[in-house]
Specification:
With 446 residues, the protein is of the alpha/beta class. The protein has helices at 3-17, 19-26, 46-66, 122-133, 152-166, 177-189, 193-201, 218-233, 254-261, 273-290, 300-307, 312-329, 335-341, 343-349, 355-366, 370-374, 380-396, 401-407, 413-429, 431-445; strands at residues 30-35, 38-43, 73-78, 142-146, 172-176, 205-209, 237-242, 264-268. The strands form two sheets. Strands 5-6-7-4-8 form a five-stranded parallel sheet, sandwiched between helices. A hairpin with a 2-residue loop joins strand 1 (30-35) and strand 2 (38-43). Helix 1 crosses helix 2 (19-26) and helix 10 (273-290) packs parallel to helix 12. The chain is globular, with a radius of gyration of 24 Å. The two termini are 43 Å apart. The protein binds adenosine-5'-triphosphate. Adenosine-5'-triphosphate (ATP) is lined by residues 88, 110, 114-116, 121, 148-154, 243, 279, 312-313, 316. Belongs to the DnaA family. Oligomerizes as a right-handed, spiral filament on DNA at oriC.
């Protein structure tokens, strides 16, 4: 394949993945060679290669083959390419000077309309909407936290879209904490701190993604703290995201933790089955637009939502691969096709936690004995942890309800259903219980 051909393929990819993804992830790839069905690209970092392979590999394969190249596999070779750190967000791919305006155009598809709301993300969604409406917002900052691929970045971009629509004069900036640090260090080196400060302090809404990244980086934390204080004191809105709550970010100074906590801290919980179904259904139109003529059989969405429980990004990756593959081989998408085509994703997503492990962890947490949990006693002190464990078994294992019941002293599956529902209901009103369950879940998934 020639460089030129790759140029053509890239154009197709630009339309398929969107301008922002294209700039961050596809443009930095340098075509190296195509031998024996293996297409090799040079990339600046291993991370870039891995990310592209996981998230865009199927689309690249599809577009290469559609352009007449016979490619079965992609290979990413780390080479000495001078590139800035890639970020999954819509930041410029070329290294900007520390004091250049942060260029930010929210990704077109990341709007509130396309964000599917379920129990696990409804509070985060409502808070983001409230911030987007503007006016006096009682909580500043809004701190969104949760595991990977659960929609934090999506919500931030959605806020930016909404604000731009309501008041285009507002300066809304989204930046990853990594990029913030990089700009700060460069400004220090180039003795341009005044310009740096000026630039960040002229913002109306500042969004910082993955703030856990600055933990342990003392001078960056210090500067972040000053910027943060200045903006909040000037009545400007800040939205922060991280993979965990402020209190749980190690090596973050206490004064920063407490400032981050003084607004509204909202957790995006892992998705439940219903939300996964909703998200997959909402994406069908999008995929049908990219792969016209490919149809998906009833039952496939349910199957995927049941099998893939990790995060929404993986769900999307599975859909992309299915559509690309079905389009390539001219077949409709069936459960059988999904089984063939997604075996590796299913394997990675298969829950490995056992019922025994869940019971032990829950008992440790509530300080009771496993024999009491599975025994006949109905005291609240045993019944509640039992229901929590049943709920976690339903969420974290592929075991059927009767199987779960058998592990809890041969209880009937209706008892398990009752226990699961009870916990779901209580988590809405009892924040202590909700925290307990979240903590246990994270510990078991870790
Ligand atoms: N509720 C949702 N409805 C529709 N799409 C969603 C939802 N949640 C996540 N997604 C999609 O899943 C993908 C990953 O989401 P996003 O990048 O916002 O995750 P994140 O929480 O920021 O993850 P990370 O911590 O890895 O950056 C995106 O393509 C996003 O559009």
């Amino acid at each position: 394949m020639t460089e030129e051909k790759w140029g053509e393929v890239r154009e197709g990819l630009r339309r398929a993945v969107g301008a922002s993804n294209y700039k961050s992830w596809i443009e930095p790839l340098e075509f190296d060679s195509l031998d024996d069905g293996v297409c090799t690209f040079r990339v600046a970092t291993t991370f870039l290669g891995n990310y592209v392979s996981t998230n865009f590999g199927d689309q690249i394969l599809f577009h290469l083959n559609r352009a007449g190249q016979t490619v079965q596999r992609l290979r990413f070779q780390t080479a000495n390419i001078a590139r800035p750190p890639a970020s999954p967000a819509a930041e410029p791919a070329e290294p900007a000077a520390a004091t250049d305006e942060v260029e930010f155009r929210p990704e077109a598809r990341l709007t509130f309309d396309r964000f599917v709301v379920g129990k696990s993300n409804e509070l985060a969604h409502a808070a983001a909407r409230r911030v987007a409406e503007g006016g006096q917002v009682a909580f500043n900052p809004l701190f969104l936290h949760g595991g990977v691929g659960l929609g934090k970045t999506h919500l931030m971009h959605a806020v930016a879209h909404e604000i731009a629509q309501r008041d285009p004069s507002k300066k809304v900036i989204y930046i990853s904490a990594e990029s913030f640090m990089w700009r700060f260090i460069t400004a220090l080196r180039e003795k341009k701190m005044m310009d740096f400060k000026q630039m960040f302090r002229s913002i109306d809404v500042l969004m910082v993604d993955d703030v856990q990244f600055i933990a342990g980086k003392e001078s960056t934390q210090e500067e972040f703290f000053h910027t943060f204080n200045y903006l909040v004191d000037s009545g400007k809105q800040i939205i922060i995201s991280a993979d965990r709550s402020p209190a749980d970010i190690r090596d973050l100074e206490d004064r920063i933790k407490s400032r981050l906590q003084c607004g509204l801290v909202v957790d995006l919980h892992p998705t439940d089955y219903e939300l996964r179904v909703g998200i997959l259904q909402s994406k069908i139109d999008y995929y049908e637009g990219i792969y016209p003529g490919v149809t998906i059989r009833d039952g496939v969405i349910d199957y995927l939502a049941h099998r893939i429980v990790t995060n929404v990004r993986v769900l999307e990756g599975a859909m992309t691969r299915l559509y690309a593959f079905a389009s390539l081989v001219g077949r409709e998408i069936t459960v059988e096709l999904a089984q063939d085509c997604l075996a590796d994703i299913f394997k990675a997503s298969d829950r490995k936690v056992s019922i025994d492990e869940i019971q032990r962890k829950v008992c440790d947490h509530f300080n009771i004995r496993v024999s009491d949990m599975i025994g006949p006693k109905r005291l609240r002190a045993y019944a509640r942890p039992r229901q929590v464990a049943m709920y976690l078994c339903k969420q974290l294992t592929n075991r059927s309800l009767p199987e779960i019941g058998r592990h809890f002293g041969k209880r009937d599956h209706t008892t398990v259903i009752h226990g699961v529902r009870q916990i779901e209901k209580l988590m809405q009103t009892d924040s202590q219980l909700a925290d307990d369950v979240t903590l246990l879940r994270r510990a078991l998934e870790a």
